[in-house]
Amino acid sequence: MYNNSGRPDAMLFCGALLCCSAGMLLAASMQYIGAGQEFTSGSVTGLLWTHIAAVLAGGVLCALLTLIGSDTLARHGGAVLAGGLLLTLLTFTPLGYSPEGSDDRAWISLGFTTVQPSEILKLCFIISFAAHIMQAGERINEPRDLALLLLHAAVPTGIVWAQGDQGTCVIFIVIAAAMLVVGGLSVRIITAALLLSPIAAWGAWGLLGEHQKQRLAVLLDPSLDPLGTGFQQLSAGKALASGGWFGSGLFSRERELVYVSQSQNDFIFSYAAQTGGFLLCAVIVLLLFGTVMRAAVLSGRSRGAGRLMSAGAAAMLFAHTFINIAMVLGFMPVIGVPLPFISAGGTAVVSMLGGIGLVQAGTGPKANEIQGG
Q1: What is the reported pLDDT for 227?
Q2: CA distance to 1, 65, 303, 304, per residue, from 367 (Å)
Q3: Phi, psi dihedrals of residue 113, rounded to the nearest 5°
Q4: CB-side exposure of 363: number of CA atoms within 13 Å?
Q5: pLDDT for 43-96, tens place per residue?
Q6: What percentage of the chain carries pLDDT values higher than 70?
Q7: Element (H, E) at 97
Q8: Shortest CA distance to 333 belongs to which of 274, 270, 266, 277?
Q9: Which of 77, 206, 305, 334 could cross-link 128 (Cys pair, CB 3.0–4.6 Å)?
Q10: Is 40 in contact with 259 (CB distance < 8 Å)?
Q11: What is the pLDDT of residue 372?
């Protein structure tokens, strides 16, 4: 969040702040309208205060990462990743928790609240992967070093897959791919990977469960299971169409809203369409992609491990934004990817603001280049 002069970058700061403000506005709207009618699964009581608390916690994390700087973060990349992995592995213990309606065990129950460790693991991975790429240096295209980097990426991705969270697996893959490209992966290897991607997709299909394959099938034709797997996307489509240009009003109880399961979480974009219409959705899209583009621009201006961390954070924000909106619009299957800064879910909000902190850490005055080993 710093420019070349070492001052905070106002555009990135304002973009993230406005995105968080949109999230808090929608949380306040849901809390108010939810007192008068049922339009989603799960309680919306206290949603605004939870969102505010997450934004404050994320702001603290953002500031800490900025103060530490990318140089120091990279030097401790191994320990950072180990901590993230250990936290995520707790989901396989009795502390692990799977919310009602979810088919993955990706949360830790603390009694008074729940935490999703894989969101924090994303930040840990970005830090450690940046350090690893810097250590590889010009050897990144050599078979041994590239294999070790791919193994590095496969470990957290595999753990998250074992949780049943395929959506987060996709995010890890996008982050790793973006960082490898920025780190100097050759065009020859990139081309080979693209040519082999159909084989990889075929292999991934074989690993999917029947309910996951059904999600892909209803993507092509939601009417195959209108009361089951296809219900959420069919409802989201009705919600999107019902809002018109200006919606029914963010704080209006006069009109019954279309019921969309988890509209406070992964399908919050459909709620924005119902209550704020096309206009609010357009504002949200512009704010999110504007923030992503600014992070990408700042990544190009940074150097060393900071450049890689900024690229990883920008890729994370882009993947979340693109996949979530495409999912709600019915262009992608429902894979449980929240909308950055806006969807309910405290850990995800903290993680996204942590991503902004990594951009800060990578482009600020404390960012120093680490020479490749």
Answers
A1: 57
A2: 12, 11, 8, 8
A3: -160, 175
A4: 28
A5: 788 899 999 999 999 999 999 998 898 899 999 999 999 999 999 999 998 888
A6: 87
A7: strand 96-97
A8: 266
A9: 77
A10: yes
A11: 41
Task: Tell how far CA 303 is from the center of its chain.
Answer: 24
For the chain, state the CA radius of gyration: 20
CA atoms within 13 A on the CB side of 83: 10
pLDDT for residue 214: 66
Average pLDDT for residues 306-331, to the nearest whole number?
94
**Which tokens sit at 269?**
């974009």
Cα 204 versus chain centre, distance: 21
| Three-class SS state of 307 | helix
Q: Which of 23, 2, 10, 4 lies closest to 321 in space, CA to CA?
A: 23
Task: Tell me which of 69 and 213 has the higher pLDDT.
Answer: 69
- 277, two tokens: 């219409």
Q: How far apart are CA 97 and CA 31, in angstroms?
A: 25
Q: Amino acid identity, residue 129? A: F
- The sign of the torsion formed by the CA atoms of 348, 152, 288, 237 equals negative
Secondary structure class of 186 (helix, strand, coil): coil
Q: Give CA–CA dist 114/97, Å, rounded.
A: 8
Q: Determine which of 35-39, 170-174, 240-244, 328-332 has the lowest per-residue pLDDT on average.
A: 35-39
- Distance in Å from the first CA to the final CA of the chain: 28
Query: What is each CA distance from 282 to 44, 155, 260, 325, in whole angstroms?
Result: 24, 37, 20, 11
Q: How many Å apart are CA 10 and CA 231, to the nearest integer?
A: 42
**Dihedral sign from CA coordinates of 331, 29, 54, 11:** positive
Over 80: is that where the pLDDT of 149 sits?
A: yes
Both tokens assigned to 90: 């707790």
The torsion angles phi and psi of 303, rounded to 5 degrees, stand at -145, 165
Maximal C-alpha separation, the chain = 64
